Each structure stands twice: as structure tokens, then as C-alpha cells.
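Quiz preparation item.
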């Protein structure tokens, strides 16, 4: 697959993406067109532009919450889905994110990343006043709730492909693992690499505990990688 080596995503495109994220809360009566996504479940006379009515209990757009806590799913939809896919499955703008390694993933969210793999996109940095630690934890919980993949290939795509490329040829880690044998693979996956050097694409690899990947899952995963060549 083509892998452009550009280091900086084009800012205008990013601006467009981010611009699309802003919640259209003041839906005035003039533009009645886009009523598709908003769940207008029998809202009785909800045409007023002034959003002062607090009695409306059906407002499910968790954007800009001023009091009530938003769910991880809603926070993900607001901040992440435009690039990472509606439910974290990934898109042409960013990786899939299900079953995140939390310390590493938190580092990426807090510091941002240019996105060499995605020329039309870049990972923004989210400061804690935009997305609190608690809110971020809810996003990770949401992403962790998806069912675990059940075969070697699917496990590989979920846990390894972001760094080693879908075909194992290297990816951002630049580490081609297609020739690796299953015993090496298994031990590498358990011990990881690079400590907490999360910023280095070529040094850091997460260590995966048995809670994250059981021995049986690791066997299936290692066998899949072992058979790549
Ligand atoms: C404007 C698009 C965009 C938005 C919005 C966005 N991301 Fe990203 N994200 C990216 C891109 C592009 C990358 C890949 C960066 C790279 O590899 O250098 C990325 C990478 C990541 C990674 C690292 C994944 C990996 O396997 O290395 C994590 C974790 C992440 N994003 C989480 C989030 C979360 C959580 C949110 C919402 C709070 C979010 N992102 C919002 C574009 C985006
Ligand atoms: C966040 C990025 C990242 C993820 C995710 C990742 N790796 Fe790695 N991997 C690396 C890096 C970087 C290296 C090189 C480390 C080094 O220099 O020792 C590496 C090295 C390896 C090696 C080479 C070991 C050796 O000494 O020959 C194997 C095998 C491997 N990874 C398998 C996997 C498997 C399987 C997964 C999924 C469970 C995975 N990796 C997930 C970044 C990653």
C-alpha cells in the first residue's frame, strides 16, 4: 500500500475537519433540512431558537455539557469519531482505536501527532480543560467494551496493524515482523519494548498482559504472524 512520507498534514484540511466537529446546537427554524441525525422523538413544539428550556429531558446531544456528565460513547462521537470512525473502527483519516493501551493512548491524546500515515489528517492534542482525565477514561471504557476479536488475523488487525502495517511489513514502527517466529512474537508481545518512551514510533511497543491477550489468543495471533511469509 502507498505510504506517503509527509510529516505534516495539510492544515486547511484539518481545519475543515475540525470545523465540521462544532456542534450545531442553535438549530434555527430557517434551516430545516438536516434533521436526520438528531433524534427528534416526538418533541412537542421544539421550534424555539432560544435554548433556555431546561425541562426538555430528551436532549441527547452530549456536546457542550454544562452540568450532566456525558457518556464515553457521546464523548467519542463529539471529539473522535470524525476521524476514527463512528464507533472507533477507523477511517481513511485515522486508525481504528478499539481496545486501547491506555497509558500510551493517553499520551497520544494529550500531545497530538502529525499523522504521517494519514496525509489528509492529523491527531490534535486535547488538553485537560477540553477533555478531562475522567472523560478520557470514559472514552477508553467505551472502546474497551467492544467484543474481543476471536481469531489471529482479527487480533492482529486490532492490536498490531497500526504500528506494523496490515501486512506486517513495518508501518510506522519500521519493524518488519513477517519473518518473526511465533516464540519470538509471543515473548515480544508480553514484554513490549521501549518502556514509557511513547513518543518514539521506532522504540516503543506496548507490553500486553494476559488480561488483554490471553495465552490462547496470543498463540493464535503469533501463529497468524508466523504464517505471514
Ligand atoms: C482530526 C482527526 C482526528 C481526531 C478528531 C482525533 N484523532 Fe486520534 N489520530 C488521528 C491521526 C491522523 C492519528 C495517527 C497519527 C500518527 O500516526 O502519527 C491518530 C492517532 C491516535 C491514537 C494513536 C493510535 C495508535 O495506534 O498509535 C490514539 C490513541 C488516538 N488518535 C485517539 C484519539 C481520541 C481518543 C480522539 C478523541 C478524543 C481522537 N484521537 C481524535 C486523527 C484524529
Ligand atoms: C505502538 C506501536 C506498536 C504496536 C501496537 C505493536 N508493536 Fe511490535 N514493535 C514496535 C516497535 C517500535 C518495535 C521495535 C522494538 C525494538 O526496537 O526492540 C516492535 C517490535 C516487534 C517485534 C520484533 C521482535 C524482535 O526482536 O524480533 C515483533 C515480533 C512485534 N513487534 C510484534 C508485535 C505484535 C504481534 C503486536 C500486536 C500484539 C505488536 N508488535 C504491536 C511497535 C509496536
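Solution:
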Amino acid at each position: 500500500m502507498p505510504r506517503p512520507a509527509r510529516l505534516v498534514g495539510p492544515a486547511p484540511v484539518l481545519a475543515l475537519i475540525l470545523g465540521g466537529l462544532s456542534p450545531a446546537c442553535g438549530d434555527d427554524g430557517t434551516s430545516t433540512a438536516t434533521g436526520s441525525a438528531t433524534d427528534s422523538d416526538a418533541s412537542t413544539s421544539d421550534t424555539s431558537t432560544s435554548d433556555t428550556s431546561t425541562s426538555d429531558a430528551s436532549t441527547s446531544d452530549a456536546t457542550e455539557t454544562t452540568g450532566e456528565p456525558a457518556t464515553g460513547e457521546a464523548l467519542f462521537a463529539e471529539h473522535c469519531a470524525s476521524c476514527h470512525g463512528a464507533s472507533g473502527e477507523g477511517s481513511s483519516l485515522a486508525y481504528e482505536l478499539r481496545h486501547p493501551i491506555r497509558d500510551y493512548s493517553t499520551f497520544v491524546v494529550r500531545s497530538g501527532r502529525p499523522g504521517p500515515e494519514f496525509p489528509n489528517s492529523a491527531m490534535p492534542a486535547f488538553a485537560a480543560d477540553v477533555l478531562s482525565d475522567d472523560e478520557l477514561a470514559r472514552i477508553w471504557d467505551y472502546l474497551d467494551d467492544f467484543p474481543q476479536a476471536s481469531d489471529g488475523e482479527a487480533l492482529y488487525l486490532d492490536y498490531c496493524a497500526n504500528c506494523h502495517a496490515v501486512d506486517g511489513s513495518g508501518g510506522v514502527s519500521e519493524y518488519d515482523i513477517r519473518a518473526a517466529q511465533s516464540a519470538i512474537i509471543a515473548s515480544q508481545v508480553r514484554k513490549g519494548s521501549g518502556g514509557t518512551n511513547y513518543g518514539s514510533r521506532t522504540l516503543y511497543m506496548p507490553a500486553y498482559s494476559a488480561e488483554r491477550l490471553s495465552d490462547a489468543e496470543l498463540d493464535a495471533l503469533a501463529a497468524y504472524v508466523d504464517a505471514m511469509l
